[in-house]
Write a structure and sequence with these properties.
The complex is a heterodimer of chains A (362) and B (153). Chain A has 362 residues and is of the alpha/beta class. Chain A contains 16 helices and eight strands. Helices cover 7% and strands 44% of the residues of chain B. The longest helix of chain B has 6 residues. The chains are: A alpha/beta (362), B mainly beta (153). At the A-B interface, helix 3, helix 5 and helix 9 of A face helix 1 and strand 3 of B.
Amino acid sequence: MITRRNFMQGVAAAGAVTATATTLALAARGAKAASPTSHKIRRGVATYSYQEEVYVHAMTVEDCLREMSDIGAKHFELIAEMLVPDFPNPSTQWVDQWHRWIEKYDLHPACYTQFIDSIRTKTHVLSTEEGVQTMMRDIRLAKLLGIPRIRALVGTPIDILEATVPHLEKENIWLGVEIHFPIPLKGRLVERLRKIADKTDHFGFVPDFGIFQNKPNPFMRDRMIRDGAITEKAAKYVENAWENKVPKDTVKAEVAKMSAGPGAEGFIEVTYMIQPADPRDLLPFMAKCRHIHGKTWGLTEDDVDPAIDLTQVIPTLIQGGYDGAIATEYEGQRMVQDVYPMSAVEMVRRHQVMLRRLLGEI
Amino acid sequence: MQDRYVIMDTGFKNTVQGGNTTGYQFDIRIPYYRGVYLSAVHTLDLTVDGTPVAATDMHITVAGKTFTIAQMYEADSVRWGFGDPATLLVKKPDGLKPGIHAFKIGIVIRKSYLPATDPEHLYADFPGLWKDGKYSTFLESPTVITKRMTLVQ
């Protein structure tokens, strides 16, 4: 049986064995990239991070708010469909309570997570007008809760987005479409959305740091090994082969000889999809980015993210004058739930320490 | 997502109506990180003790209202809240016998992360959406949860 302590030691080791990860940690610590006053980047948390704790009632809404305040991640992002009772119509009493909490914990809600649910039933795809009505539902609730920005999913239909813009202008709400892996920064979708953004100050982008993933995700790998989806030997082979740029077809052929497990092929695909975006590609439209998802699947005890390296990303954001929050979005819970339930508070904290270092706060 | 918590420890019992045992019931929570319209449940398959249960033998109670599976697929104004128990009711004369029972649920939540159509060909960077000149939107494979639970009565 793997204990939580063993597991965390394993995680730390996974980060430490890679020379690159260690170098990154040292670089991050040594970096004097920014002084606290020379940038406009604010720290926050996406409440997505605390989903497991909220689901099993280990944390209440107020617990989430207090925690974000305690760690100084005050510019947070709210998933209303996770935390607001009686969504989309919370009671007046609850809304009043919400505002008292925001004041008590000195928080600045930065972004509201929107879900269009555009395929509403098996057979009913929302019309443009119905999509706008869904957007209005969320614009209304965001305003009621004092949240000035909305994140839309990367796959929100273009017609709905375009038809929503006049309402955003009228209601003075900004909406950003998430740029989520594997959408490239220089691709057709971003180019198309930039055409909308060019015409208004109320529309733009929410980059997700998953686009900067530069190493295999060890938390996913270890879960797949524990689940028997792939053998440890095969997983190590694939990762080394990827690192050494062995062609994918060669790796597939080798793994086919290994009794590598039912998930081996998928593991190869996921590993070979890793292609970190160049943060400099954000510079031409940095002013259109007003919120960021600080994606992480977990960090070592010395606050190194073994899969998503931000040492070049944060300085580029500062250089480009990024004016907005980075909301830590911890997505590793689904990978470690079997050995390390309720991991979010700790992992978010580690990510926040990493951000503080990269931002020159410590 | 939240797999280990989806089938709840509490709530499993035979259903008694008017003095008759008409079936059995247990509680599940949504395998997702937010609440959804009930109509976002795209498929829901249940196997008990190795035998698949027909959809027509199932009802689901969400937010105090009970639906057939067919009604659930159309329930686009009912919210299944995040972490809120829904009760699955299975029709079975005399219910289940006391003792251990094996449950397996396969559930797909339709998340609409990508649009139903892509007329401007903007989503080709997502692997698998465009195939042979044809676009089909992304649907996850079922979340499968198994659990063994003891029935007392």
